[in-house]
Amino acid sequence: MAGNTTKYAIIGIIIIIIIAIGAYYATQKPAQTTTTPTTTSSPSPTTTSSPSPTTTTAPPKTVELTGDFNKDIIAVGKALEANGISEVKFTVWAAGDPNSVMRIYGIYEAAHRINKIWADNGINVKITVNKYWISDFNQLYQEYLSKQPLGQAGDFFVDSYVFIGSLAKEGYILDITPWVNKYWDSVFSDFYKPLWQGMKVGDKYYGIPQDTEARPLYIRKDVAKCIGWDLSNVADLVKEGKFTWKDVYEKAKEAVSKGCSEWGLIHRKGSAHPDLIQFIYAFGGKLYDPEKDKLVLDVPAVYKWLYVEWKFAQDGLLPKDIMSWDWAKQIHPTIVEGKTLFDIGGTWYWTEWQTKDYYTDPNTGEKRGLKPEEVKEWFYYTLFPAGEEGLKPVTLSQPFAWMINSRAGEQNPKYDELKDLYHKLAFLIVVKASDPDINAIHSVISAHVPVRKKATELLYDKDWINKLVNLQLDLAPEVKDNIKDIVATTVNEINVEFLANVSYMLDYTHMAPNHPKYPALADIFAETVDQVLRGQMTPEEAVQHIISRIQADPELSQAVEIVGEIPGGWQFP
Amino acid sequence: MKKNIFSTNKVQLLIFLLPAFLIVLLFYIIPIIITVYVSFTPMRNWNIDKYFNVIVGLQNYNRLFSLITRDPVARQVVMNTVVFVAITLAINVLGGLGLALANFFIDERVSTGFRTLWLLPRMTPIAVYGLLWYYFFHGSSIGMLNSIAMSLGLIKKPIAWGQEVIPWGPWSIIIIVNGFVGVSFGMVIFYSALKSIPRELIIAARVDGASNWKLTTNILIPLLRWHLLFVTTWQLLSLLTTYAHTFLLVEWGVVSRTYGQTWALYVFNTAFGRGEQDQGLAAAAAVILVIFGAILGWITVRALGFNKMITKPKGDI
After folding, report:
1. Which chain A residues touch B47 with a CB distance below 8 Å?
2. Is the pTM of this model over 0.90?
């Protein structure tokens, strides 16, 4: 009986396997038939040997880009129209602070401008754009990773350049090298050159700079005054390397011990990248060896970084649990309410403090954004000071990039046939989204630094700024609607002056490597610095911990070169 | 006369079994096969097209072995898992048994409400339940535990229980949070088993003067052996693979990532939660988890005398 049951069970399994194999082939067949017509039943005389006397010209499946935008976009439009396409849908995915909405609406505006060019030239094709926005750029990257292979990720991905290495390696974003080269003279030569390094993997371009920024050290003027500290020449002393992190520590300690502020220093939460990575550069270290194409664990610099963090936290100058603080409820309110002397921040904080209700007004008890005058009155800013004397101050830029999904346009008709055309259209949209005025609007409302000279020039053009304040610029209605509140709060002389004043910082900038293994190393840094701040590890133990973790993973140990040793006798402060 | 093939018992048996077999095949067997297969590939960042057909042999297992033996965080994950599973299992089984016995001895009308109360953690959506504990154990003064302890003068300033009091702070939190969910499972199983014990046995024991303790140790628990075996094995396997509540508490920063991460959560984070999403390595870690689960399950079944329990009784029935 049992033997028969087994026999029938085996027969059942065989039947199921046969059904499964049949189902597999059944589902494969239609895919083959859908691709067939593109090569055999096309009316194109180049692909068939039809003897028909009435030869009709096949609609072009691609166009060659020339570097002349108007010419190219019209050629693309006409090709799409000839192929029966009347609407092209794209989706843009972006992340960032609340004021960086032009990462989304830059694409909307570009589509609007291209639609106008097409309409003016009698081309009956229209681009429509959908959006997806979240604040956390790391989370957006993770979503992109999981959804790109399924064809569910955005056609445009606007995120940190630091992910370009891994995305390019996986083939998830387009190699746009030949097109960038075509547009180099007409558009991209105007971009600040150092930014391009982050857009490349090897000698190939995978992104176009969207914005950049500096990471100033903010100093509360009122707290400084409370301890009798004259700030007038501090920025110059920092520039000359005469005001170092040892001085930051002394001032922070003074502020806390005199009761002028609750904390001496506040910085970001969650990850060490990018803000805290500045310490490595400030202590003369490096993170990447371009000759070997290897990440570098610079032991002396990392040790000094962790020692400084540990010392600040152990002496009660920096919250031990800062890495799990809440941005909106703890970090920003602590800064804007003057409960700290120093803050390691970013240029975009300047306008974020104005548009987000982080500040509790002591007179009314209500939460509100700061007024531009208050930000100017309360905050002084310098470069990130040198770690110790003899070294240079630094800042760190994390340019955001326009990246194009390698499956861009897939949601549109005839994708297999017109893939190249859709990809080129996506590229041209990004070219348009890089127009100086679009980039300048983004810069001024989000306090990011422009990526091109012509955009910077607009910031000094009072007439243009006035037009922006009054929204008299020729922008798509949807874009105007979505930026009007931010414009009303942020576009003013104080903010424009701030952008102009911080632009020198880019001369001191560093960029973390966009190596595919950098995210794994950055994860280790983040977990370790958290434990150091909490006092669960000494700086020595922390460095050994990082080394152990790198060496424990055969893949990571091959990608990271460990250089130097913990410096003996080094003291801080 | 032509025989209808559907009339034979074996064919009918096959037809009736087929739906269940298909479900098991689709949702259990095929995923296990895929997981084992992926563990032999360099799959990462969801790139099926690029990596699915690349076989790297035991590379992921070598990496995993290297991590377990040399990476302090991976070693800590193993320790977290051992402590978490052992203590939570004891709480779930013994706590469930204790609650069931308490329910058994108290009045039915009272026990119904009591049982429902204990089922609340299981009925509450994970995110809501996690949020309650988030606010309870929060490291600042908004945390209920800190607030109570400070108002009673037990502590002067807030303590980040899941971050600073290591390792027992984070361990205690994940044990308590999962324990409250798991204990209700044992309670329901044991209580229904207790209710199905023939009343004559209990009455006879009472007539013989048995106290509650004697009744429990000599009559009730011996008759619950089968259920004890089931609950222990089930909870052991569940605890080895559970991560949802812990994931939320770690993500929200209430529990230390290093001391709160169990093996199941490590698998999840390696596959989906980091800068580099390494599905090949995570699959290898998952396979190891399945193997350990199977071995521990087998040991539990043997230790609790499963074979003895299914042996045909001697003599006439």
Report:
1. 149, 170-172
2. no
